[in-house]
């Protein structure tokens, strides 16, 4: 489904600030894979997401979705395959527009945008149906401006918008990190059920070790721009936070350092 | 007095198209576009030249609108593909348009007095509101279409709409183009109403447009896009009424209007942020007083 072959990315090349963001990344994901990604600060997790979604282009290597090489496609053309939820609850929605208008824009993903009305009665019924599945009452507030919603509500809406046109790949970039524990738990639960129901191929970056172990069928650990540990479904079953930290130290030679790390 | 108010209503509606253009760039795209000062004259120049050469006034007006669309595309390309700062690309186009407008007119001033215009056969106070309503309906229909939503989201959260597959370079170019088309349409109509086109006719238009948008919002509010666009049109009318009244004040001169307009815009830009700061300070004072009060009670209760 998703393949990254020998992907490398440098920041500030040939200057004193040169930094290897990604170094020879090899990643193959099968359809329906749910991979969680953990790693220290500056390990390259966000860069990995940006390379897949097309915000950045790799210096070398290529990105393949469904046997199609998309390395050189701009972000807006890749989006027909890729749904993404950002860490910042403000990032995934347009605050001065209404809930139904935001959903209409998500609904138009992968289609040619024309002059027909964005929100129609038939679409409104569909939007209500999807919103009610979130279980937080947004279906009663179709005309509310998104800027009036709380961070948790906005993130739930972002998650729905990213997934309801059934993308090939779902990218979750620490999408619960900015929320309080109760809301983060709600979003995690929603994520789990949506991914399972739609059988989405998912890549999720998280700072929560416990979450990384509990969710998904595969776990990768990054450090210094490399994937240093790749744990499959079998081994993931009896993984614990202590054992994971131990393995990290053994392979990388230093402690997992991350100021926002949550052990769970 | 009554006559001058009717006149203010009429020119307010004609300048409203320009204000709607400024609304698209300034409020929807969050892009202060100075092209307006040039493209207003472009619309006037094209219409005046075509009418004085015997073309139909309707065709002349539509051509003026088209000229503005093209000017807007140029500004949009400079900004998106040329990666030039928004203000700078507007200034560059405004300067370039001065020469282009001069070429179109081939002299600084064209009179079309006594010639055919769309106001000759029909009363201006009948035709102008009709045009205004048609433009308002079409503009709103566009802003609620799929492209329109993408255009609005481009000014609201560019990263988000790109992740949903909109080419934001394209939506910006479409928005700036449409904006300058409306500005030029306004110029073409004003030229016919006043029976001449002048090379300096567009000077200061951007500030007048901003003033109309801001006055409209302040007086009539802006709950949604339909409401907002209607407010802008009404704001343009109020602006013209203010001008008409100011001209009757003895110690004010006609040339003072630009200063008054600038002051209106400055007040409107400064006021909301100062008001917010004052409100926040008050709120913080009140809340901390409350918390202190409750805290003191508790310690006293515990101490005794």
Outline the structure in words:
Chain B: The chain crosses the membrane at residues 12-29, 58-79, 86-106, 118-139, 170-191, 203-222, 229-247, 259-278. Chain B: Keywords: Cell membrane, Membrane, Transmembrane, Transmembrane helix. Chain B: It comes from Paenibacillus antarcticus. The complex is a heterodimer of chains A (264) and B (304). By secondary structure, chain A is of the alpha/beta class. Chain A has a domain at 2-89 and 165-252: 3-Layer(aba) Sandwich (Rossmann fold). Helix content of chain A is 34%, strand content 23%. Chain A contains 9 helices and 10 strands. Chain A has helices at residues 45-53, 75-78, 99-107, 121-134, 151-163, 181-198, 209-214, 233-237, 241-252, and strands at 2-11, 19-29, 34-39, 60-65, 68-69, 82-85, 169-173, 201-205, 218-223, 226-231. In chain A, strands 6-7-8-3-9-10 form a 6-stranded mixed beta sheet, sandwiched between helices. In chain A, helix 5 runs parallel beside helix 6. In chain A, 43% of the residues are buried. Chain B is an all-alpha fold and 304 residues long. Chain B folds into 2 domains: 2-248, Orthogonal Bundle (ABC transporter involved in vitamin B12 uptake, BtuC), CATH 1.10.3470; 258-304. A two-stranded antiparallel ribbon of chain B has the order 1-2. In chain B, helix 7 (146-156) crosses helix 9. Chain B starts with a helix and ends with a helix. The model of chain B has no long low-confidence stretch (mean pLDDT 92). Chain A binds chain B through residues 53, 74-77, 79-80, 82, 84, 86, 90-98, 101, 104-106, 108-110, 113-119, 161, and chain B through 141-142, 144-150, 152-153, 156-157, 159-168, 224.
């Amino acid at each position: 489904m998703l393949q990254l072959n020998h992907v490398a990315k440098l920041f500030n090349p040939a200057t004193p600030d040169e930094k290897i963001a990604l170094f020879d990344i090899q990643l193959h994901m099968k359809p329906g894979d749910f991979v969680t990604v953990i790693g220290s600060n500056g390990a390259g997790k966000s860069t990995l997401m940006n390379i897949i979604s097309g915000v950045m282009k790799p210096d070398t290597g290529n990105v393949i979705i469904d046997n199609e090489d998309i390395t050189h496609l701009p972000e807006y053309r890749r989006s027909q395959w890729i749904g993404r939820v950002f860490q910042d609850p403000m990032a995934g929605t347009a605050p001065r527009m209404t809930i139904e208008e935001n959903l209409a824009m998500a609904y138009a993903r992968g289609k040619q945008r024309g002059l027909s009305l964005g929100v129609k009665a038939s679409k409104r019924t569909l939007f209500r149906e999807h919103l009610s599945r979130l279980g937080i009452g947004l279906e009663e507030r179709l005309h509310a401006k998104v800027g009036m919603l709380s961070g948790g509500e906005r993130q739930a809406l972002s998650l729905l918008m990213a997934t309801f046109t059934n993308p090939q790949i779902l990218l979750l970039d620490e999408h619960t990190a900015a929320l309080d524990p109760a809301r983060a738990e709600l979003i995690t639960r929603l994520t789990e059920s949506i991914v399972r129901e739609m059988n989405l191929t998912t890549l999720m970056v998280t700072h929560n070790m416990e979450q990384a172990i509990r969710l998904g069928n595969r776990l990768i650990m990054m450090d210094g721009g490399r994937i240093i540990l790749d744990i499959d479904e079998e081994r993931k079953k009896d993984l614990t936070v202590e054992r994971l930290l131990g393995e990290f130290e053994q392979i990388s030679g230093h402690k997992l350092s991350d100021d926002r790390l949550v052990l769970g | 007095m009554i006559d001058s108010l009717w006149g203010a209503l009429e020119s307010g509606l004609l300048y409203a198209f320009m204000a709607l253009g400024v609304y698209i760039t300034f409020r929807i795209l969050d892009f202060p576009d100075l092209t307006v000062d040039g493209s207003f004259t472009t619309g006037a120049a094209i219409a005046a030249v075509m009418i004085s050469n015997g073309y139909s006034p309707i065709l002349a007006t539509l051509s003026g609108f088209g000229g503005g669309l093209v000017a807007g595309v140029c500004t949009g390309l400079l900004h998106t593909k040329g990666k030039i700062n928004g203000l700078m690309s507007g200034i560059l186009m405004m300067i370039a348009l001065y020469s282009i407008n001069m070429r179109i007119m081939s002299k600084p001033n064209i009179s079309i007095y006594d010639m055919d215009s769309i106001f000759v056969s029909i009363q201006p106070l009948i035709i102008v509101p009709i045009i205004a309503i048609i433009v308002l309906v079409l503009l709103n229909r566009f802003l609620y279409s799929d492209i329109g939503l993408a255009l609005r989201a481009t000014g609201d959260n560019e990263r988000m709409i790109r992740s949903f597959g909109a080419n934001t370079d394209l939506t910006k170019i479409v928005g700036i183009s449409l904006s300058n088309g409306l500005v030029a349409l306004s110029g073409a109509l004003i030229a016919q109403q006043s029976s001449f086109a002048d090379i300096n006719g567009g000077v200061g238009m951007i500030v007048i447009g901003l003033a109309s948008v801001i006055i409209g919002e302040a007086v009539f509010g802006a709950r949604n896009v339909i409401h907002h666009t209607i407010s802008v049109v009404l704001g343009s009318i109020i602006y013209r009424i203010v001008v008409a009244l100011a001209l009757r004040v003895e110690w004010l001169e006609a040339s003072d209007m630009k200063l008054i307009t600038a002051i209106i815009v400055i007040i409107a830009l400064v006021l909301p942020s100062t008001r917010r700061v004052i409100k926040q300070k008050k709120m913080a004072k009140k809340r901390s007083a409350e918390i202190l009060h409750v805290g003191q009670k508790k310690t006293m209760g515990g101490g005794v």
